[in-house]
């Protein structure tokens, strides 16, 4: 076959990652090649070499109902200081990752108003005695009202202070794991991502559940320890770190990650 004229071809797909080139006469199914971009970082239980061209970060549940004054967690009398303390280190990490063209994925609870896809078992932790608002129910706090973790509501929005980029990716979830019945895996596969960094709240609930599912789906998983917290007792955090290192991946810190991302670390 003669070589086709490529002057009028159009790209279809995720540019630079998973793309056809098409014309009236031909479809070029060869995906674009991307040279590995190596970063070396300290981690536990072993040091790591990463390909930054196939890496993304998933920031989980950093939203008002869990992290902000007036949110659902604070209305229960639970200290939100551990969540608030994550804003600065997450911003430092995501700012540097954007500079390196590494995708930022914000994965938040955002449930349907009618709760039709929420099983009783999913609803129970948010309304254990049946007398509370429950998911998508009205939460009254500090003389304001909003719908608990309902998609589009104040409670489901990313907490003030976290910097969001125009190219960041936003995914709603309605389970502990962000992989269950969401487009998260399809998005990551389409972007040719193999390695996932994890940050957010709560370490022993949605962060761990999503990280474990990522591991089960074949992704490399790295928990950024000081970008992750929990409102549970400290032993829950320590058990989470142990389980990640022992079974499901690796842990590092924002300092170690940023050092690995420095120009002399690539």
Give me the CATH fold name of the largest domain: Rossmann fold
CATH class of the largest domain: Alpha Beta
Got a strand count? 13
Shape: globular
Percent helix, as a range, is: 25-40%
Look at the structure and name the CATH superfamily of the largest domain: Isochorismatase-like
Structural class: alpha/beta
Overall CATH architecture of the largest domain: 3-Layer(aba) Sandwich
Mean model confidence by pLDDT: 94
Structure, described:
The structure is a single chain. This protein folds into 2 domains: 1-33, no CATH class; 34-265, Rossmann fold, CATH 3.40.50. Helices cover 27% and strands 24% of the residues. With 266 residues, it is an alpha/beta fold. It is globular. The chain is built from 9 helices and 13 strands.
